[in-house]
Amino acid sequence: MMVVEMAEGSTRRDLDRVCESMAGGGRSYKVAAGRGGAYVMSADVACGEESAPFRAFPGVRSVSVTTCCHPLASREIGGESRPMELARGLWIGDGEPLVMAGPCAVESRKQLLATAEGVQQAGARVLRGGAFKPRSHPYAFQGLGSEGIALLKEARATTGMPVVTEVMSSEEAEWVAPHIDILQVGARNMQNFSLLRTLGELDRPVLLKRGMCATVEEWLQAAEYILAGGNERVILCERGIRSFDKNTRNTLDLSVVPLLKSMTHLPVVVDPSHATGRWELVAPMSLAALAAGADGLVVEVHCDPAEALCDGPQSLTLDDFAHLMTRASKMFHALNEEEPSWRMPIAR
Amino acid sequence: MMVVEMAEGSTRRDLDRVCESMAGGGRSYKVAAGRGGAYVMSADVACGEESAPFRAFPGVRSVSVTTCCHPLASREIGGESRPMELARGLWIGDGEPLVMAGPCAVESRKQLLATAEGVQQAGARVLRGGAFKPRSHPYAFQGLGSEGIALLKEARATTGMPVVTEVMSSEEAEWVAPHIDILQVGARNMQNFSLLRTLGELDRPVLLKRGMCATVEEWLQAAEYILAGGNERVILCERGIRSFDKNTRNTLDLSVVPLLKSMTHLPVVVDPSHATGRWELVAPMSLAALAAGADGLVVEVHCDPAEALCDGPQSLTLDDFAHLMTRASKMFHALNEEEPSWRMPIAR
Amino acid sequence: MMVVEMAEGSTRRDLDRVCESMAGGGRSYKVAAGRGGAYVMSADVACGEESAPFRAFPGVRSVSVTTCCHPLASREIGGESRPMELARGLWIGDGEPLVMAGPCAVESRKQLLATAEGVQQAGARVLRGGAFKPRSHPYAFQGLGSEGIALLKEARATTGMPVVTEVMSSEEAEWVAPHIDILQVGARNMQNFSLLRTLGELDRPVLLKRGMCATVEEWLQAAEYILAGGNERVILCERGIRSFDKNTRNTLDLSVVPLLKSMTHLPVVVDPSHATGRWELVAPMSLAALAAGADGLVVEVHCDPAEALCDGPQSLTLDDFAHLMTRASKMFHALNEEEPSWRMPIAR
Amino acid sequence: MMVVEMAEGSTRRDLDRVCESMAGGGRSYKVAAGRGGAYVMSADVACGEESAPFRAFPGVRSVSVTTCCHPLASREIGGESRPMELARGLWIGDGEPLVMAGPCAVESRKQLLATAEGVQQAGARVLRGGAFKPRSHPYAFQGLGSEGIALLKEARATTGMPVVTEVMSSEEAEWVAPHIDILQVGARNMQNFSLLRTLGELDRPVLLKRGMCATVEEWLQAAEYILAGGNERVILCERGIRSFDKNTRNTLDLSVVPLLKSMTHLPVVVDPSHATGRWELVAPMSLAALAAGADGLVVEVHCDPAEALCDGPQSLTLDDFAHLMTRASKMFHALNEEEPSWRMPIAR
Predict the structure, then answer these.
(1) Which residues are bridge partners to B301 per DSSP?
(2) Which among B60, B143, B181, C157 counts the fewest CB atoms within 10 Å?
(3) Interface predicted TM-score (ipTM) of this complex, two decimals
(4) How many CB atoms sit inside 10 A of residue B256's CB?
(5) D204 lies in a domain?
(6) Using DSSP, how many helices (H) and how many strands (E) does chain C show?
(7) A92 and A200 share a domain?
(8) What is the pLDDT of residues A95-105, one digit of tens each?
(9) Which chains touch D (3 or more CB pairs under 8 A)?
(10) Taking the model in full, what pTM does it have?
(11) D61 and D170 housed in the same domain
């Protein structure tokens, strides 16, 4: 792939000239929006090909030729890890883990507010809750829909916590975006390219869950669809992959946490609830995720798991969650005191 | 799940009464359209629960309680296998295998027409070709789009063959449906429930590919979304699952062919091209699929694979394809002569 | 890897000289017995390294440098496919499929003889039956042991059919070899290197089952352990791999049949019984395996599956088996008449 | 399964009477040695069957009927977690994590001693090192064999650290046992039942690695083979399972740590080196394993990874290892101070 980065002060005309030259040379290309500027990407370029001609074009800042198919998501082109602002004053990737918590599905006003207040007191900074639920069969509870969105807004007004919720189509994304702080793409839609393209054009951070059998490259390429549209705020969320062992709902692949840290600047969070499907494994795997270097967690908490309409067996009670947060905090500070802003060594 | 089947002559009022009774009992429910009538489905029913009350309601034909989450797709509720008409005079599941063939992507008028004529002469009955291509990263060739659809229509006009093409969103499905005979859902979108719901409302057969790591139940539940919307024409297409071995692009899971025959009335076809990713494995696996009892094949054929913009290494030449068709025909008739309409024994 | 092939008339001294030169150059090496001569193999050789010096040594026939780690099992070094004699007058790989059939476990004289006679009448050429059974937990029926071996010998004496049985350790292999015609290595022992080395030194064909999650390369490398010991008669048996879907016991990976044909000269057979774990899938998958080009089948048949001590649900009755054999024969001849000695095209 | 536990003071005759009654009732059975007494196990018992008759037999302490196929390894029959003495004064499972470290393969006196001293100084309590190496193909370095065992003994004499090494067959196990403190079963041999039976009769702790695609039940059933032979000292070692993603050598399945804690009393350790295959992921995954509640670690450390004959890319340097140990210790104490002897909640 050839990546032509336009300089900050470059003009529309400079950009057009690069594109014309690409087209003239018989190369397909795509203009991508990136950090403060435009990129012209062409996949019709072999490695080792001469990139010099484009360097001389006016308005071109740099030209790279790479085998990587997710350049904007890579550290090589996209740059180092850096804090990302998710909502006013709320950052991820600034050294302090960010915990998003709440019920799997928004079920009622009472359930949502009780859970929201509880998780906030325990230290969560973002409220999660599903209004539109992806369900394997059409007869299962599909979420409260727009009523759920209204309840999430009310919970935000009450607690001040930003909210994250899942969207399953471009239409839903466009409809939900004005109301909700962070939009989530579920595992089943990780390669719903139509949805990803729409999210690239919206001004909302995206929590992108890993597909059930997605490789790390496919996941970063899915993120690239969003980044290429100009939306730089993508958070990667590991939620378990599908394997042969059925003792847990999925197989939490925690090694991707340090692995992604070496490949991308995007923040990485872990969802131990969907990964394991069993509440009693959520606390140990949350601690493990933070010990592995995750930037945050997404945890299902319910004020009354036994009555949950969806995924009760994997939800923590408010007490379990508060206990986990205390332990996580002690652990984090012990690791951090030893080595502020703990990061794995990337090269030997 | 409780499945209340309304009788053929039942009225809207009969239906409403069942629904009201469901709601009154605190049960969620969904009205599904099925073979010549309506169904009221409720997942809020435990197995063994008394179904008698609903039997006495006017307009109710039958009431079943089942653990199966894809009742319309099942043989139990949905009935026996039966031929399905895909386009005027074109049937699948009538005993004779149906072969769909053509290029991975529509690339040009010349390429499409040459390939279409070639596969037709060799015995293919449906032309396949992608106009909208799902690609892992945003910089790869994404298909010719509406221009591709126009070329497919031209190829149909020239050869008389119905055409099948992939759609990736509700919007695309609605736009493409008036022009194209059969709509394909790709592996990555098998659980794009928004798309499935839209397809349930369109009057077009749907070729539903298995997701890369979908279980057979999840696949049938995805089909159920379409069936529940009133569209009865769903064809299941096995195209390989993801496994640890990377010698083939995917792992063709041929055992699902006879397995599905025992579970569902829907026709089952096999795509050996995406399953293996290697042209030299396509012919043996095509024969294997038919020997296992598949109702048809979806095969990638290109008039000049070396020049293909997409998936050349897995495309057969026209000569390879013609050779395969001759062999397949001999094999099929030998099996069929021995035992007309060969089907595996379903119960001992 | 460097492969130095000694010429047929070469002396022990010639061999020693090659070895000394390897050692003198600081390379580790291993002397392997191959088709009618010795090989000196060294893994301490980079691709592209100069092989000329060894070519000039007396007694050296050829020198190759390859990235392949299973040279004797490869077509490149090990040669083309060729018929293999398994017992007096019994060949595999000669164009006619060879079927091995019998019960999972030898249970009694009556059961074994009834099954043996039945499968022979239907066209099986080898009797299979387990005397030593690998079982996941120590409290399950572990086979009749030496008594089972005696019964297998009696069944052979009665029917004239050679027999194949599983061995699980070097000790068992050495003890069983004088009594039994073909030794089987089960999936769990595919990388029991101690057992493989012992089998390399015995004069008995080995039926080497694929490990539950073995790649094709690992499988061929396991075969290489046997070949390198001087035993050239290895048959590869696909029996399903482990995947996420639990509708079948394993996932039959039939694409490896044509794939292996392009990589190795060793014969390839398929066990549809363990692969599927369901008797009603055995016949369709047997036909599929032969259509894909397999050299033979290994099928579980029991004179009374309902009473089987082991794997009854995957065993065919004698009638089912006879029916399958008739169909297989018709199918095979139709394919073969069209193109005698059907093989997939290996290069375009 | 029926489990008859004999009382401590029961006689041989009491045991025989239970066995005779089992046999008389047409049940197969196996006598297993367990904690301070004998068990008679029979798999020929359906759940719900009456166990009363055996309760009345003399010398019988208890009778249980269970669906679990690894009773001695279960908490239900085998009891609560408890510290296990591995060598004089060396315990595992006593609340303090135990770290085993050393090179993948013993290569030379110098390499082994330098590494042994280094890991000891950093806090490792057991020295690991392979003398017999399982290698996928027969031409790779297979280990120093008996010379390697001698070097391990020398390193133990010098440092005082007990040593653990892999054995691959019954013969090797019997030969190595008198010289080495802890015997390791590799992933490829997890279901080498002949080896497991031999280890059940030896007086040495066994480090039982999980098979590459073994379920948790199969793993515990493999442990049961050893326990049933009378050897109570089995340590379970998670080392990654095989999945579709090839960015790491295997997929570390850390959720099994808390899961196993709820199922078995056996200690659980984690090998992050084989799991990831990449040294830069070893430290984060080591911390994650301890945070998840592992009883210890098995870490590959080499005094000079660049020169390692085997698995250099996954070996830590001595400095990396020392750094990891410091961090692990801080983290562990922070977690432990909060909640001494941290264990996940097992029941809600």
Answers:
(1) B316
(2) C157
(3) 0.94
(4) 26
(5) yes
(6) 12, 14
(7) yes
(8) 899 999 999 99
(9) A, B, C
(10) 0.95
(11) no
